[in-house]
Amino acid sequence: xxxxxxxxxxxxxxxxxxxxxxxxxxxxxxxxxxxxxxxxxxxxxxxxxxxxxxxxxxxxxxxxxxxxxxxxxxxxxxxxxxxxxxxxxxxxxxxxxxxxxxxxxxxxxxxxxxxxxxxxxxxxxxxxxxxxx
Length: 133
Hints:
The chain is mainly α. It has helices spanning 2-14, 21-44, 48-61, 72-91; strands spanning 102-104, 111-113.
């Protein structure tokens, strides 16, 4: 996924230049697919702030019902911000899914997930002994 997101970012940066309309159509398709991938992973890892951002990118760049802003001066910052976001997603370390450890109960033979053991508060012990007079 990292190479595809990097390709999306590079295509967004190249879109700053004056190019034929076919390039921008291909750009819409690539960015939409990349935004869908990021959106899926963001929802899967419960990172809802990224899912909202990439939902907006998906709506803005969708090829089915395209949004026309008609001015290059408006699209240029959008392309730069989108490229930076794709690079950010591609190269930031992703959280790993937590796996529950299953331990079998030797008495009953059933499996159940174990919870991390809650430690009681540390007890402060005075190293000095009370003087008995």
